[in-house]
């Protein structure tokens, strides 16, 4: 087993806007309307991609596979730029170029262009410039197979061919890429499963693409956490109440995670209490007065909660309190019977943190457009919805959405979701401290969860995250 990052990684991405195919086209059009020539933008894109390739794959033989559209156009630029740097480059065309820019770039490539059928010898590196953000259908199986055989390693230009830009769907048996070079901006398929798993690494080739100010989707980024200052007390650092039930361990994970994320005061309400470590955790017997304290900053409910009448009464009590609340696990099952309207009883933000099964039970089948499904769920419920998984999608009722990088797969183990719930609760409790809103608070929590998992390392168990959180939060 390897402790290093063998799951897909984003590298050096500073521009965190994520654009759909249509938004990318609109941004390009804005440039062209402003007088930039399309071939100049393509030259910039191809040169930027070639510079990245030259640095990382020095000395390898290259085979550039060009499609008929502008992705193929990028391919011709890359071939020329690599040849000028001394690389041995062959170019293969799937079909003649169809766009003006691609035609122009093919004309500037002075070497031979082979037909796909004629390629016998694979190269060390095959560059997939077949299809990019203009892909409209699945990749033909024989083409996928050809691509797999064309190089010992592959690099995808903008997107791996066969992936759907806006959903991350990827049909068929598509080959893996050592590198994907996103052109101008990240697209949803760079972050969403399964497409995101087709690349070991994803980097961004910078071009002068203007990012529309009203774009609504972005990559989850490091949160701006404020350190405590001498004037703080336990209540200014946030009081979190965690309401547990039948399985007390799950609620303990949430409560201790809330503590380790920096909450000033965490209270755990249970059906029975005992004195145990950590002694700093205040354990109380559940009754409704637990929720009567005006100093409560946020509430978490769900981990370890069964579907009994008592549990339902607890959830009803939480939903009546005008304080930020996160609902997970058992609370989501109960919410199904209470009805989503209950989330709107008070003005304070509500956060739902379902995994796929819980999501489907509450909102219906996810289908193959995870992002659209989560956005719709947030809109209809009025809550911030965080769909957990290898790449986590978060949506706010106002249409804003965010996607995480791919999380360490070691997180797929019991109890890690309970930990996330606790972190969410603390970030909600600390909204005034850090000066962010609930949508940002949830992103902060997911980011901390991923970083804590990296810190905890392979074969982590949920309890390890609790300890890893301490350093993670301190360094955020
Ligand atoms: N518009 C521009 O000027 C720029 C575009 N850029 C590149 O252009 C790409 C987008 O170019 P396009 O919009 O031309 O689209 P693509 O080059 O991605 O593909 C479009 C062409 O492929 C066909 N097609 C789509 N999916 C297919 C499939 N599965 N099997 C067979 N044929 C298929 C379409 O009918 C069309 O002819 C980006 O991904 C990026 O690489 C960059 O050069 C930056 C500048
Ligand atoms: K491609």
From TrEMBL:
Transmembrane segments: none annotated. (6S)-NADPHX binds at residues 70-74, 132-138, 158, 250, 304, 355, 418. Its EC number is 4.2.1.136, 5.1.99.6. It holds the Pfam family Carb_kinase. PROSITE patterns: YJEF_C_2, YJEF_C_3, YJEF_N. Its cofactor is K(+); Mg(2+). Residues 217-476 form the YjeF C-terminal domain. It catalyses: (6S)-NADPHX + ADP = AMP + phosphate + NADPH + H(+); (6R)-NADPHX = (6S)-NADPHX; (6R)-NADHX = (6S)-NADHX; (6S)-NADHX + ADP = AMP + phosphate + NADH + H(+). AMP binds at residues 388-392, 417. Residues 24-215 form the YjeF N-terminal domain. InterPro entries: Carbohydrate_kinase_pred_CS, CARKD, Nnr, Ribokinase-like, YjeF_N_dom, YjeF_N_dom_sf. K(+) binds at residues 71, 128, 161. PANTHER family: ATP-DEPENDENT (S)-NAD(P)H-HYDRATE DEHYDRATASE, ATP-DEPENDENT (S)-NAD(P)H-HYDRATE DEHYDRATASE FAMILY MEMBER. Homotetramer. Catalyzes the dehydration of the S-form of NAD(P)HX at the expense of ADP, which is converted to AMP. Together with NAD(P)HX epimerase, which catalyzes the epimerization of the S- and R-forms, the enzyme allows the repair of both epimers of NAD(P)HX, a damaged form of NAD(P)H that is a result of enzymatic or heat-dependent hydration. HAMAP family: NADHX_dehydratase, NADHX_epimerase. Belongs to the NnrD/CARKD family. This is Bifunctional NAD(P)H-hydrate repair enzyme.
